[in-house]
């Protein structure tokens, strides 16, 4: 609408959109000028500004009171509070409260409780319409028909060719939608968005709700049908799981419409029913659990609205796909606490997290806990130890089968249809519930079972295999890879014999370790590490028998240190080192490496004594087991020197740094990154002993070499630049220190991030340079 004054702005919660459309229609038909967000506001318009403008122009506000309306998180609070403001000269308040459902008194803000409400629910459409119009006219009783305000006229929308919506909650004569689920929770935004899409015209009138099993696609479609039943003159539900039976269900629809004779052929049914629907404009068809688009292409009439629910994702040619995901956490908590008496929100939150917010799993848990009196802690324990068994209990009546049964059925079907795809699904069950990059498998094809490896070698066959896993709704497939819900994973694992589980786990570990991105100190590897880390951490690293997997875990700890996530690096190393040590002994090479990671993490946490003691033990063991000139022995010696500096034992650190650098130069060469790491450490020790000029010269040489060997933006190069700038400052070359410091700070912030320890150190050094130059307002604070 434009900027003209209006009679009414209809304020409503998204969950009550059907009521809002009905009320707005009745008011407009009565001749009032009405503004309704879903009718009058263009997509992309600033919502807050639009509300403010509407409240400014509206003479009065019709507020649709419901439980959702008084949710403190909604903007409706600002709408009704603004409407309460008195307008000088008006004989009544601006707010016209209309209740669309029973609302407990304690849910209504105290300032609104004294108001006289108009109730439009629980009565037929004619009585509701009269109540609404009486409420907006006010208490006066005119002698004749009221003169309606504004420039509108009675029946305007009807004369424009529209037919008004029925009272929300009423259903049309032809209606076979399954019974409404009284426990349906949340999804308000998705339902409103779905309504917007369906009323948007063009291809959007066919929407395909797609997603994994148990995510609530069928429930969402049914709730949409019931919530917006008043907008339709026909609603028909088709069980589309078996495409050959769709015709029989359309025959039943034809009989209800009185356009099909008993015994008519399928083609006659098709022609008659589709023709009848095309002559009508306000109907809803739901094709539930459709398997493939080909089953439906001959049954889409055009002209009304169609919802398709499916695990299949190939709907783009005939429908607009809508991905149905798990519930938001607050919706999960509401579902659980609403059905399980005395379940605390905190406990419900923990349970929802373990259930991965999957609607079917939540409904089962709530049903089972309510029926048996089991508390959340006991249910969580069973969920972790007897997953498949507990997820086969408490099946709610609104779902056709339990999550365990549905998952088992899908897995069995996949195994029959495509055994290699079933093997791929099994491997995903031993990875993390985060997306698995599909090239993780193709890059480790030699570790795959033979038939699956052959598929991985053929791009077309491989993509078809991925699609099969997705088509059977065991995982979601998108540009990020395959993603399998944690409960689906647990059920699939639980179906395996111990021998099968061990073999599949070991194969998944082999795939991961083969995909080791390498050098975690190089930012070029970080994107790949970020993809793999969830899956590395999901593996049973403590019990793995794979040396390669243990080395991958060591690299993972190093990666977290390199990224500045010191606490996570420490937690991983501190968890694994003692258990590996117990199993394998302290001298095993991967155990030594993890001990080294732990010592380095301790140093970065400021626990210098523990770091030094552990680093000394690691270095001594390595010299004995690996030899004094072994590459890893020299790495551990370098870390020991760092720990010694942290405790102020600078001379000891200097001597060890010199020895380590000399050995590395001889064994690895002067430009090897490890040699340069020793040179960097030696320069720090020299500065600590007051030999600043010698430290400056060594830092300059190391920086030049690192720039040439590693590149200007490598974290090690930036570390050398930080040290050199510090030496320049101490030698009085403050302007040179400031110039180098600014460049280094900018690079650190871009490469490492604003919160990385090296970025913060660089910022601190630059600030000191700026203060010394009288530029306290510039530089790092910009």
Q: Average the pLDDT over all residues and give the rounded result.
A: 85
Q: How many DSSP-defined strands?
A: 13
Q: Can you count the helices?
A: 34
Q: Into which percentage range does the β-strand content fall?
A: 5-15%
> By helix and strand content, what is the structural category?
alpha/beta
Distance between the termini: 44 Å
Percent of residues in helices: 40-55%
CA-based shape? globular
Strands of the biggest beta sheet: in what spatial order? 6-8-9-10-7-11
Poorly predicted spans? 83-91, 140-162
Radius of gyration, taken over Cα atoms and rounded to an integer in Å: 34 Å
Largest sheet: 6 strands, parallel
Explain this structure.
The chain has 782 residues and is of the alpha/beta class. Helix content is 54%, strand content 7%. The strands form 3 sheets. The protein has a 6-stranded parallel sheet, with helices on both faces. The protein has a 5-stranded parallel sheet with strand order 2-1-3-4-5. Strands 12-13 form a two-stranded antiparallel ribbon. A hairpin with a 2-residue loop joins strand 12 (476-478) and strand 13 (481-483). The relative contact order is 0.04.
Précis, in short:
The chain is α/β, with parallel strands linked by helices. Helices cover 54% and strands 7% of the residues.
Helix-strand blueprint:
Blueprint: E1 6-11, H1 17-29, E2 34-35, H2 37-40, H3 47-57, E3 58-65, H4 76-83, E4 95-99, E5 118-119, H5 125-137, H6 156-159, E6 174-175, H7 188-198, E7 206-210, H8 217-227, E8 234-239, H9 246-257, H10 266-278, E9 283-288, E10 305-310, E11 320-323, H11 329-339, H12 345-354, H13 359-372, H14 376-385, H15 387-390, H16 403-417, H17 419-428, H18 439-442, H19 450-456, H20 459-471, E12 476-478, E13 481-483, H21 486-494, H22 498-514, H23 526-538, H24 547-562, H25 566-584, H26 589-604, H27 608-625, H28 631-646, H29 650-667, H30 673-688, H31 692-709, H32 715-730, H33 734-751, H34 757-772
Parallel strand pairs: 1-2, 1-3, 3-4, 4-5, 6-8, 7-10, 7-11, 8-9, 9-10
Antiparallel strand pairs: 12-13
Helix pairs in contact: 9-10, 11-12, 11-13, 12-14, 16-17, 17-20, 22-24, 23-24, 24-25, 24-26, 25-26, 26-27, 26-28, 27-28, 28-29, 28-30, 29-30, 30-31, 30-32, 31-32, 32-33, 32-34, 33-34
